[in-house]
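hey so u asked for the seq, here:
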Amino acid sequence: MLVIKSGTSGDKMDDRRYLLTIGISLIFLSVVIYLIHFFIFGKADYILSYFLLHLAFVPIEVLLVSLIIERILDYREKKKKLEKLNMVVGAFFNSVGEELLKIILNADVGNIKDYLKISEDWDDKDYKNAKKLLKSYDCDIDIGKINLYKLKGLLERNKDFLLRLLENPVLLEHESFTELLMAVFHLADELHRREDLKNLPKSDLEHLKNDIMRVYRLLIIQWLNYLIHLKHNYPYLYSLCLRANPFDKKSVIIRDEDE
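ran it, structure tokens below
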């Protein structure tokens, strides 16, 4: 351990020396060029005036680079990361999320379906209102209506896939999706540690119910956010998701020609 720390400290010292050497070299080169200019043209006042003129512009350059250009570049970088992240979210829903949502939705004892019968006419205001209503929605499920073996099998089949998602560095930019994945992993672990899911005591079923509801709440909001992204960027994928809407029993993938 001591050797590793010493090596790390030595690397930092080497970097500092390298930067210091580069800085001194550049300053020395600038002085040499100014001296050459003076020996050739002999105009010290002109050199001083030119130097002060450019020195006065340095704060403006710092302003342009640090506050404006850097923010523009940072915005573009975040936009690219968000695009990659939504691809990850899409892969999650295609592989696990939609099926997971259907399994839990089958046990919902409330009227959540009334809030999420989304049509192609929905705009950002409709989605905003839906999310606002869902925040105050008293989510509840009947644990007896959930096929725990089916739920357990879904999560275990996709364990490696979920692990790869969690290892993706892009997820650092998306706390809500990371929170969803962690909740899913916790539920998967709880189910994995129970071999017999048919004869669980009431207290154990209540514990699993709370874990499932945690996943359910996060899953719904993430699903809505993903739909908003598709609506603005991929209308054809958005149309497919609406035709596969698990909250609307009338939604169908294949539509008749006269519809």
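DSSP finds eight helices and no strands in the chain. The CA atoms of residues 17 and 23 lie 10 Å apart.
lmk if thats what u needed
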